[in-house]
């Protein structure tokens, strides 16, 4: 536990903005072990709508800058969760509780927040500016999403205005 060396050269952290990718590993992987491209189309697609919220949060934080992260985020959006870009937290309105105040650009109230440090949902009173919330990514084929990720060099998603009630 007192060691200052890395736990593993390709593992950064599930909470890191970056992860070590296969191309960042400093040794040559034999071609016969590089099966991803050969079997990708044969694997069944994961049905994210069947996963519980804890699993979706786990996938979101574990697979940063990956199609899995985008898919988990899309499913969380479908379940009325929103990602706050500045606070870097997931939040949603509490069922059957309306915001205390609601305006065109923001609202205030008590919200259900996913605390990644405690790995649980908590309630928090806060002001939500709509322009600080991330929006859903349009569902597309995995190859299209992957190429967009590379082109955008992992820039944040576009803003999302939530003027409708939940």
Automatic annotation (TrEMBL):
GO terms for cellular component: CCR4-NOT core complex. It comes from Rotaria magnacalcarata. Belongs to the CNOT2/3/5 family. PANTHER family: CCR4 NOT-RELATED. The keyword Metal-binding does not apply. One of its GO terms (biological process) is regulation of stem cell population maintenance. Residues 9-133 form the NOT2/NOT3/NOT5 C-terminal domain. This is NOT2/NOT3/NOT5 C-terminal domain-containing protein. Keywords: Transcription, Transcription regulation.
């Amino acid at each position: 536990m007192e060691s200052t060396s890395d736990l593993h050269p390709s593992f950064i952290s599930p909470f890191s903005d970056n992860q070590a990718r296969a191309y960042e590993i400093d040794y040559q992987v034999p071609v016969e072990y590089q099966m991803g491209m050969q079997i990708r189309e044969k694997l069944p697609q994961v049905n994210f709508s069947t996963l519980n919220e804890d699993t979706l949060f786990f996938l979101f934080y574990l697979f940063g800058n990956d199609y899995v992260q985008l898919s988990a985020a899309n499913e969380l959006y479908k379940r009325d969760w929103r990602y706050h870009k500045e606070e870097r937290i997931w939040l949603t309105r509490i069922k059957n509780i309306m915001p205390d105040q609601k305006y065109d650009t923001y609202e205030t109230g008590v919200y259900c927040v996913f605390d990644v440090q405690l790995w649980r949902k908590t309630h928090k009173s806060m002001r939500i500016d709509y322009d600080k919330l991330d929006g859903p990514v349009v569902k597309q084929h995995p190859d299209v999403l992957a190429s967009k990720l590379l082109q955008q060099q992992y820039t944040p998603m576009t803003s999302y205005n939530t003027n409708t009630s939940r």
